[in-house]
Amino acid sequence: MTIKKFESGINRKVVVLICPLIKKHWKAYSGLTIIMLINLMLTLLIAAFFGRVMNAAVNSRLAELTQLIPWGSGLLLVSITANYCNSCLQSAAVYGIERDLKKMLYQHILYLRAQCLTSLRSGDLLSRFSNDINKIENMLGSRLVDLVRMPLIYITVFIYLLHINITLALVSWLVAPIAVTASSVFGFLIRRNSRMLNEVTGDNSQLINETLQGFFVIRSFVMEHLMLQRNTKQNDRIYHLQMKNAKLSGLYYVGGEIAGSLTLFVTLCLGAYFISNGSMSVGALVTFITLIGHMVYPLTGAAGNWVNFQRAAASAERIQEILDEPLEREQSRWQVQSPFVHMPIYSLEFRDLTFGYDAGKPVLQHFNLKVPADKKTAIVGLSGAGKTTLFSLLLRLYEPQEGMILINGLPIQSFSLKQLRTLIAHVPQETFLFNGTVRENLLLGSRASESEMICAARAATIDPFIRSLPEGYDTVIGERGMSLSGGQKQRIAIARALIKNAPLLLLDEATSALDNKTEAQVKVSLDRLMEKRTTLVIAHRLTTIQNADHIVVMEKGRIVQEGTHHYLMMESGLYRRLQQMGNTTPILSSYGRRFDDA
Ligand SMILES: Nc1ncnc2c1ncn2[C@@H]1O[C@H](COP(=O)(O)OP(=O)(O)OP(=O)(O)O)[C@@H](O)[C@H]1O
């Protein structure tokens, strides 16, 4: 694989990513190509112009010199205009592609499948957005056109030089094989190094991200020294790889310089000899010397470009890796489109579900449950029993390996993802707050009116707190809601669910962070909310679900008991043991593990 990349210098991922973008910005690239051809012509014309000026000067032809002045001015004007247009078109191509790449990547990440998202590290993803896109950007625009320009200018100038003096042209041509071999070897080394550099840079972004997100844990577990050590180690490695890259690039450029100087020196000596024996004019040598640079820099410049291209290719591969990840599947094998978006729920059934996050490790095994419509069904069980997984499957964040979930007798795959998720209001275990105002965090894009929003906040008993904030509902609550307590965040999450007003309500330990008094208040509103809806509640505090219409007890991905609280308390099973253990989450979880071990 590596050899293949080395040989071609450009692999499938790079082509797949870059080509459509270039195609999209064809106008800018066409302009850059025209400018490139104009510049090529200018190169030859200016060299010929210098030769004529030199010959006129050496032979004291003053009239010819005067005639040449407008030509020189014309060439200068065209050159300046071409450079200005080049710069504008280059910006249009580079920034246009940068914008498109960022949009593409962001859109893809938004719709990635849950299992992919959970395996990706956020810092590494951020690094792909900034670091990798910058490197690709560095290779676009006229640099990309240079990939064509350099060989073209080399061939054109070589033909022109052959026309002036065959021997000199052949001598200057000798540089080519050395430069091409060196560029291939160095290109390969730099690309490999750049890939490692990108990965460590991603790791470092991840570490910084984790430091910001987990700073409470870092402080309370006195991990500062450990984090500092990790950061130092990563930055040392980044420095080492950057230096290696710089040395490789430096060697490469120095090699190019040596090749250029040597060619010039040999050509100058040989040219002087040809002038002295009368087989070449001074003007021809000046034209030759002016053009000889164009026999060297396309090789060294292409080499420099090659270095950048290798870096960009490594980055393009990393971006394409994400874009290659499959997205959530919108349609299923059933292909039934339900016309209802806000339909009432008549029935909800988990039928013979088997699911595992990893192959061969089932979390749910042949799980069967008929959830009564418009009733409150509670799911309890030890930590890791698979309760939250049921919700994830219902939301189609994951697809079961076997079995199906049916809403109103239709497999959930019959609905579009949007339809399905519109039917569900979900209060997850952990509340995520966006960096924005309280209002934005409550509405989450919903079109609910001001009074509906305030009603929901009141029902979730968060309204007085919001009003006590400096800007009320317009107060910015900061990134990840750091200025709010766990209970306040949870009440915002409950208010969101109330605003969504969906027929199916999923509560995953929705009141676990509330104190007893607040929980009692919120429970009143939740009970009111649950009255008209099919509700599934996961709870560790069993006191909160004693009034549930139906209680399902889960163990290791299976239902081990079902019934009402009174019925289950009469049975000698897991439910009664859970009640006896105590009703708080940590106790339950730790006892759970002991049970499992036993
Ligand atoms: N994204 C994931 N990738 C891999 N394994 C997972 C993932 N999420 C959960 N698991 C595993 O699946 C099992 C069931 O997890 P789940 O969250 O459904 O349990 P739970 O009953 O809700 O637990 P808790 O009461 O502690 O929230 C656990 O062993 C857990 O480690």
List each distinct ligand once: adenosine-5'-triphosphate
Largest sheet: number of strands, sense, barrel closure: 6 strands, mixed
Output the number of helix runs.
Answer: 22
Distance between the terminal alpha carbons, to the nearest Å? 50 Å
Q: What share of residues is helical?
A: 55-70%
| Physical arrangement of strands within the biggest beta sheet | 6-7-8-3-9-10
- How many whole angstroms does the radius of gyration measure? 35 Å
A few lines on this structure:
This protein is α/β, with parallel strands linked by helices.
Description:
This is ABC transporter ATP-binding protein. It is a multi-pass membrane protein. The protein is of the alpha/beta class and 598 residues long. Helix content is 65%, strand content 9%. It has helices at 2-8, 12-24, 26-58, 62-110, 114-119, 122-137, 142-164, 166-173, 175-213, 215-220, 224-276, 282-323, 387-394, 417-422, 438-443, 450-459, 463-468, 486-500, 516-531, 565-570, 574-581, 585-597, and strands spanning 348-355, 364-371, 376-381, 402-407, 410-411, 424-427, 504-508, 534-538, 550-555, 558-563. A six-stranded mixed sheet has the order 6-7-8-3-9-10, sandwiched between helices. The longest helix has 53 residues, at 224-276. It is elongated and about 120 Å long. The two termini are 50 Å apart. The model is unreliable at 1-9, 332-341 and 583-598 (pLDDT under 50). Adenosine-5'-triphosphate (ATP) is lined by residues 118, 357, 363, 381, 383-389, 589. The site of adenosine-5'-triphosphate (ATP) has 12 residues, from helix 13.
